[in-house]
Amino acid sequence: MLSHKSPAKQQLVSVIVVNHNRAELLRECLASLLRQSYRPLEIFVVDNGSKDHTDAVVASFPEGRVRLRSLGRNLGFAAGSNIGIRESKGEMVALLNNDAVAGAGWIEELVEAMQSSPQVGMCASKVLFFRTNVIDKVGHLLYPDGQNRGRGTGEEDRGQYDRQEEVFFPDGCAALYRRQLLNDVGGFDDSFFAYGDDADLGIRARWLGWKCLYVPAAVVHHHHSATSGPYSRQKIYWVERNRFWLAVKNFPLPLLLLSPILTVNRWAWNLLAAAVGRGSAGNFRRETSLVALLTEVVRSQRDGFRSLGKMLEKRRHVMAHRRIGNLEFYRLLRRFRISALKLSFEDRDYSFRTRHDSADKEASLENIGRASCS
C-alpha cells in the first residue's frame, strides 16, 4: 500500500507493451497493468505481426482499456517501442515487456521518483525472476567495450538493493521515461531491432545530461527471454552486433580506439569460460555448441562493420549535441562498470538453472502420477 506517501501529480502515463507471439504471457502482463493504483493510465500494445491469438487476448479486456496497434511484420522491440511512443499521448512513457508482471504500485512508485527532480528523465525498476525472490536486474552495469549486464543479476533479494539511488540507465523490460527525454534523444535506434537498444538510448540520454533513478519499490516479475530464449543463437548475434554499434555511436574517441582490445580481452575470458563450462558461454555451449557460439560472434561483427558508415554518422550527431564532457562520462563508466571476468564467469541467469530443475520436478511428478494410477 502507498497510502503513507503524498500522491504523485496526476500526469498521463502511457504504458507501451511490445508483443510477438506470446498471447498468454501478454494476458497476465495486461491484467497486472489494469490493477495499477496510478491513474490516468493509457495502455498501448504494439503487436509485431503475431500469428497467435494476441488480438483476442486484447479484446478480452474491458473495451477501451487497452489499445492495440497491429503491425504486419516483426519490426523488433526498438521500432515497436518507437511506434508506441509516437502514437501514445502520455507526458511520461513506461515500457513493460510482454513477459513481465508488474506489482500494483509499479507506476505510482516510478512517477513519484521521476517527479523528485527535473534532471531525472529515466527510472529503473526492481526486476525479479518470475515467482522468485531472485534478482533479474536493478539497473545496469557496463563493460567499457559496450557490453552491459543487469546489476545484481542472480542474487537473492535480501534488501541489499532497497535504497533509491542513481544508476547508469534502466532496462527496457520495465522502465519509465519522460517524453521530453525521448524527444531529446530521438527515441530508440530502430536498426538495433532487439537487445542493447535500451543501453544505447540510456547512454545517449546521459550525454544530454539526464539522470536515472533506481526505484526499489517499483517491483516487476519477469519470465526473462521468453520470446528469444536465454541462449538462442539469434540473441547472441544481436547482443554482440549491437554492443559494437553502441560503442561506435556513443564512446569518447580514446575509449573507442581502446575498445577492440577490451573486446578481445572479454572474448578470451568467454572462451575460457566456455571451455570449463562456466558462465553464459558455458551454458550456450551446453545447449548448442562452441562452434555455433563462434559462428554467431563472427557473423555479428561482420554485419556490424557493414553498417559502420551509418553508425559513424549517428556518432557525429551524438557527439555534436552532448551536454556533458568526456571526464564526466568516464566517471559514470567507472561508477557503473563491470569487469570482463564477471561478465564471462558469473552467469547468474537463474532461468537456465530453474528451467532444468523444473523439468526434473515435472518428470518426477508425472512418474508419481502414473504410478498412483497403475
Q: Could you describe the 3D structure shown?
A:
It is a single chain. The radius of gyration is 21 Å and the shape is globular. α7 runs parallel beside α10 (290-306). The protein has a single domain (12-374), classed as Spore Coat Polysaccharide Biosynthesis Protein SpsA, Chain A. The chain has helices at residues 23-34, 54-59, 76-87, 106-114, 179-185, 197-207, 233-250, 253-275, 279-287, 290-306, 308-321, 326-335, 340-345, 350-373; strands spanning 13-19, 41-48, 66-71, 92-96, 100-102, 120-129, 135-137, 140-142, 148-150, 165-166, 174-178, 211-222. Residues 350-374 have low confidence and may be disordered. It has 374 residues and is an alpha/beta fold.
Describe what is shown at a glance.
The chain has 374 residues and is an alpha/beta fold. 48% of the residues lie in helices and 18% in strands. It contains 14 helices and 12 strands.
Which properties best describe this structure?
18% strand, 374 residues, 12 strands, 10-stranded mixed β-sheet, alpha/beta, 48% helix, two-stranded antiparallel sheet, Spore Coat Polysaccharide Biosynthesis Protein SpsA, Chain A, globular, single chain
